[in-house]
Amino acid sequence: MSSPTVSAEKERFVRISIHSHIKGLGLKDGKAVLKGGGLVGQLKAREAAGVVVKLIKEGKMAGRGVLLAGPPGTGKTALAIAIAKELGEDTPFVALSGSEIYSAEVKKTEVLMQALRKAIGVRIHEFRRIYEGMVTKMDIRFDRHPYNPYQQIPVGATITLKTKAEEKTFQVDEGITAELLTKGVSEGDVIWIDSETGKVTKLGRSSEGPSKYDISSARLVPVPDGSIVKEREFVYTVSLHDLDLMNARSGSLLSLLFGGREEKEIPPEVRKRVDETVREWVDSGKAEILPGVLFIDDVHMLDIEAYSFLSRAMESDLAPIIILASNRGFTRIRGTDIISPHGIPLDLLDRLLIIETMPYTKEEIREILKIRAEEESVKMDEEALNLLTEIGSERSLRYAAQLLAPAKVIAASRGSNTVTKSDVERVKDLFADVRESAKYLKEYEESFLK
Ligand SMILES: Nc1ncnc2c1ncn2[C@@H]1O[C@H](COP(=O)(O)OP(=O)(O)O)[C@@H](O)[C@H]1O
Ligand SMILES: [Mg+2]
């Protein structure tokens, strides 16, 4: 029997974000290719990241973490995303910025705890009894609304389902009838009815059913095999945090799919109960644990309390792999007077594999900008790219990349679809980089505020 995967899939529209060009680490037999997976250069770091991916996949990273260390704009976040892509959709990947733990409403350790638990997936296998078949006949019975005689309401239905093996007629109750109506089920559709909840799932139009339309967007599916009533395995992947929320609301798995009130803080006894339940499921073969990755960017924003919480969490058997990124050298650990490498306490540093990212050469910056231009559908002539590369190496890669979109707008305003050198000069003049804007404010402060 096939096992359909039901995952809580969110609608996603393609959005061009600053890392959307990254598809993977671009490795071949463990070696980094000059340009691959959307990445350019940074070969050693990419190969090291490849080793980490292997370790994670083989389950050998437990209790350990990774620190990506390097100057701003050297691809630390990009590498973390590439690692996530390499691990695949099935591995939960949660990203958090160090400063996000400081919330007015939730304790720092609670923010971290939730992030840690979001990064642990639980794949649940569930067998459910369903009715499956092509609808060959459907009659819905209506009756008068008890309080409103002018309104007709559905009270039940007679439905005939057909598989390749049999055809049967069922009387279904009000709840299932309402489901059939809201899902817009009609004769010729292939459906499932969950025997327990009465939930109806429309799989598509039967390729053998009557076709009402010449053109239709409905998915064509074959008439199912076997008997109408069957046990079917469903596989859901949820996170420990999802289970926490569900239990805190004392809801069902369905409330997870349909959403509900967000809990600000989850009581520890709820988490304990969830952990116990999950362990039972794992022991009985009903579920598997999928340890994911928690990525904490700008980790130097964490303070000593957060660090010790994190160190402790890494020891738990239900801990995700932790990837940290920092662009600080020796600096004070927040909340203390201790100076430490990257502002990270030594006991935590001891558990980390450190990957360094190096500044890019001009040629690499040029290649990265070319990839970004393509990603953002910006056409550019040679001179414009040269100037942008210059800006990228003198100012910053991020600043140069940021100028791409406005340069396209400037080019368009003079009726061209190709960015030229003068368009780049214009946007460079219009938009300041961080250094400029900070310097300007400092001068302003000095001349006006004193
Ligand atoms: N080696 C690379 N190949 C392709 N794009 C890169 C590479 N390194 C960085 N980038 C891109 O350059 C920009 C800045 O990199 P980022 O990862 O934000 O740097 P960091 O996190 O180290 O400050 C991002 O848009 C990133 O996707
Ligand atoms: Mg970053």
Explain this structure to me?
With 450 residues, this protein is α/β, with parallel strands linked by helices. The chain folds into three domains: 27-119 and 292-356, 3-Layer(aba) Sandwich (Rossmann fold), CATH 3.40.50; 126-234, RuvBL1 DNA/RNA binding domain (OB fold (Dihydrolipoamide Acetyltransferase, E2P), Beta Barrel); 362-438, Helicase, Ruva Protein, domain 3. The protein has helices at 43-57, 76-87, 108-118, 174-182, 240-248, 253-258, 268-283, 304-315, 346-349, 362-375, 382-394, 397-402, 404-413, 421-430, 434-449, and strands at 27-28, 31-32, 35-36, 39-40, 65-69, 93-97, 120-144, 152-162, 167-172, 189-194, 200-206, 220-221, 229-239, 287-291, 293-297, 321-326, 330-332, 339-341, 352-356, 379-380, 418-419. The strands form six sheets. Strands 7, 8, 9, 10, 11, 12, 13 and 14 form an eight-stranded mixed sheet that branches. A five-stranded parallel sheet has the order 6-15-16-5-19, with helices on both faces. α1 packs parallel to α2. The longest helix has 16 residues, at 268-283. It is globular and about 80 Å long. Residues 1-12 have low confidence and may be disordered. The site of adenosine-5'-diphosphate (ADP) has 22 residues, from β4, α2, α10 and α12.
